[in-house]
Amino acid sequence: MKKDLVRLTICGVFLVAVASVPANAQFYLGVRGGLSNQNAKAGELKFDRNSAFLYGAQAGIKFLGLAVEGQFYRADHKLLAETLPADVEQEMDYYYLGVSGKLGISLAIVYPYVTVGYGTYSVDLKGLGKKSAGAFNVGAGAELTLGKVGIFGELRYTDFSVDIDSLKWDFGGLDLHFGLNIHF
C-alpha cells in the first residue's frame, strides 16, 4: 500500500508538471547507460565495492534552466564478501523508479546542471528476497544538445537501506550515467 502511494505521488507530480508548463517548454525522451558502483553492508558483513552496467530510460520536460524528469534504471551486481569466509557471494538486482528535478544554466548548446531526485529503490537478493525503499539522490551533470538530440553525462550519489531476511542491508555509492535524449 505504501509503495503504491509513493508511485502514485511520483506519477501525479509528473502529470501536474506536464500540465502546467508553458508552450515553449521542451519535452524529451531518452535512454541511459553507465556504471552502478554500490557499497553493500549487511550487519557485520561488508562486501567489496562492485561496479555493474546500468541501463534504463527517462522522460522529462525542460523549461529554461529547470527540468523535471521521470526515470527508470536497473543494474545487476555480484557482491563478494570482504571478510572471512571469502567465498561468500551474493547476486543482487537493483532497480530505481523515481523523479528528479534539474536546475542548471541553459547555454547555447550546453546545459550544465545539478539534480536532486526521490524514488523507489528495489533490491532483489537472490535466495533472500526482494524489498523496496524510498530514498533521495543528488548529482551533477551536463547535456550537449545538437538540434533535437542531446547527449548527457551525470554523476549521481545514492544512499538507501532495506531490511531483508531480518537483516538491515545498506547500499550506496556513485553511479555514472551517460545517455541520449530526443527533444520534441
3D architecture notes:
The structure is a single chain. The chain has one helix and nine strands. It is mainly beta. The protein has a single domain (2-183), classed as Porin (Beta Barrel). The chain has an eight-stranded antiparallel beta barrel with strand order 1-3-4-5-6-7-8-9. The longest helix is centred in the first third of the chain and has 19 residues, at 2-20. The radius of gyration is 18 Å and the shape is globular. The model has no long low-confidence stretch (mean pLDDT 85).
List keywords for this structure.
184 residues; mainly beta; Porin; eight-stranded antiparallel beta barrel; globular
Describe the structure in brief:
It is built from 1 helix and 9 strands. It is mainly beta and 184 residues long. 30% of the residues are buried.
Oligomer: single chain
- On the 0 to 100 scale, the average pLDDT is 85
CATH topology: Porin
In order across it, which strands form the biggest sheet? 1-3-4-5-6-7-8-9
CATH architecture: Beta Barrel
Give the SSE order as H and E letters: HEEEEEEEEE
Classify the secondary structure makeup into a structural class.
mainly beta
Report the total helices.
Answer: 1
Number of domains: 1
**Radius of gyration from CA coordinates:** 18 Å
Point out poorly predicted stretches: none
